[in-house]
Amino acid sequence: MAKGTKENPWKLKTPPGTSEYEMYKDVKDDKEVIVCTVGKTVLLYDAKCLNDLHTMLKKHKDWMDLGGADEQKPTKEGTVEDWGRSPKNPVGGWYGLKKGLRGRFGVYIPPLMEELGLAELTHDAKNNKMKAK
After folding, report:
1. Between 106 and which of 3, 48, 54, 80 could a Cys-Cys bridge form, CB atoms 3.0 to 4.6 Å apart?
2. Residue 25 to residue 76: CA distance in whole angstroms
3. How far apart are CA 17 and CA 52, in angstroms?
4. Is a pLDDT exceeding 90 seen at residue 2?
């Protein structure tokens, strides 16, 4: 059975390895999405983020801080989280689709990128980074 489906989701851990969560691809409102389940919380991300983030990281050519933050908190400039919300990214803003729960892009998407073989991640207790493969 293929991985990344509702029946067989990717089982991932946050970069420091402290929390487990699941992700799978689905379609919602005619848009391909990534469903991220953390405990009982369900987040949605635009599936375009995988290709877009990989492309940006390849151009960046170096390690980039993840900088995960909740939607209500500001981001650190130059981080993956900041890029995931930026009006300058390919979708012109948030890749997170569920209002109130659009943040944490820099926490949950990078481990999926690593699982898919698109990126390398550090796995330190804090201040993790990623770069394109």
Report:
1. 80
2. 28
3. 25
4. no
- 112-133 per-position pLDDT tens digit: 999 999 999 999 999 999 999 9
pTM (2 d.p.): 0.95
pLDDT at 117: 97
Average pLDDT, the chain: 96
CA distances from 88 to 75, 91, 93, 98 (A): 15, 8, 7, 20
Task: Identify the bridge partners of residue 42 per DSSP, sorted by sequence position.
Answer: 37
Q: What are the boundaries of each domain within the chain?
A: 10-132
Rg of the chain, C-alpha, whole Å: 14
Cα separation, 109 vs 116, whole angstroms: 11
Specify the pLDDT at position 105.
Answer: 96
Report residue 70 CA to chain centroid gap: 13
Tokens of 86: 């930026």
Nearest to 21 by CA among 33, 30, 12: 12
Instruction: Report the largest interatomic distance among the alpha carbons of the chain, rounded to a whole angstrom.
Output: 40
